[in-house]
Description:
The chain is mainly β. It has no helices and 16 strands. The strands form four sheets. Strands 4, 5, 7, 8, 11, 13 and 16 form a seven-stranded antiparallel β-sheet that branches. Strands 10-9-12-6-15 form a five-stranded antiparallel β-sheet, with no helix packed on it. Strand 9 (about 85-90) and strand 10 (about 90) form a beta hairpin. The radius of gyration is 21 Å and the shape is globular.
Amino acid sequence: MMESCCNCDCTKNVVRLNKVSSCPICRGNFAQPSVPNTITTGAIWRNPATETIVVTLLNKSDAPQTVTVSVLDWQNCAQEEMPKEAFLCGESQPSLFNGTPTPLTFTIPAKKLLVVHATPQNPWLPGDPCYEVLVTLPPNPVFPTDPIIPGDPCIVNTWGINNLGIPQEGNTVLHREFQRTIFI
């Protein structure tokens, strides 16, 4: 009989991820710790013709994924959240805001696209018309299923568009251009 490992009460095969370590890690179904998974564009200088900030989130996984989208207006020190409207598979979702805008949390069904439109509140651009897009994705496992190329369950892109729906120069950030950030 094989002894239990890692105090998890399993008797599965043991995989040693670090040959020097004396602590084996069980291969099996157990709750493993995860790391936060928030990505950011950083501050973006808004093109004068940008009237809407579009964030697309494509759930490429076979399971629903819960995400939180925040679009912050950095035009002043208040860092106010911009009002948003969400579209799932092209259909407008019920209004999620009554009063002060807050970050949008939404569960995207498997293999579906969520599009979020954020509207800057100041049409007259002040001296520093910056904004930031932050997206919190499902946490990554500490030991990903594919350690060489750990996949994100959702692909995130953002751009600013004018009133004709044309992307504006300088306001496009594609998935791999987002930066991971950890809030403590």
